[in-house]
Amino acid sequence: MKCMLIILTATAISFATGKGEVLGKNETFASHICSKFFYRQNEPMGLSQQNSARICQMYDYNGVISPYFASLYDRDRRMPLYSAYVFKTVGKGKRPKKWMIEPQLAFANLTKCMAGEGVVPDRKQLITSQAVNDDYKKLDPRYNRGHLNPRGHQNTTESRRATFTLTNIVPQTVISNGKWALYESSIVNISKYYQCSEIFLVTGVIPTKINPNERVNIPSHMWSAYCCVDQNGMPIRNGAALISNTVTPILQNLSLQDLESMLHKVPFFANYIQIFYNRCKKLI
User: What kind of fold does domain 17-280 have according to CATH?
Assistant: First the structure.
């Protein structure tokens, strides 16, 4: 059955807290259909904020509704804090011209699938709840749309299209975006060299202070961590990377432990950071 648009009454207007693609305030990804995008079905610890929303990124492709990745979205900054996904292979194909939004961030009982902005009946509520296309069109030309889950890490038309939601991108400088592509390409080589059966990735950002003059927060850094496993789901290798979001970006390849230590020092996050279950360590 295709995703259906439910017409709202005035009493239904509220931020999304119901069942569907956007999880309830007290829900986690544990035992959720989108838990499969996390190593051992465990979401990261220490990254969630008081007003963040967990999104199971659902997409309707020719009437078939499927989850494609998971995101943690900062409602206050109108940006994702991370996206978690499973690397497939090198993806090719045309870039979609249209970007989607998350209807349930605006109204809990709208379609559970990412969709165009037109599905939200109240424009004011839409722009209050999340970033919209106009926000990115008005960005300083030094910035473009930086994917957390890149289309190049997906291997089907539908999975690549699903990455084109505004809840999966942040403002990233053009130069930083170009250098970050080097890290994304390295995942392909890691997969081949270590013969990974699957690679679980969590890619996120380090937010900056809320600027009332900015609709969408511009992060200071982007980071990513990977966990490569064999056909039995046992860890083979892990690693991470960090890049500054500037016009003179520095790309650092890090150990998973070093990345977690760096995030631990960021006041925005909790005192304890763990991106993967058991830190993706080999079981003895």
Answer: Extracellular Endonuclease; Chain A (3.40.570)
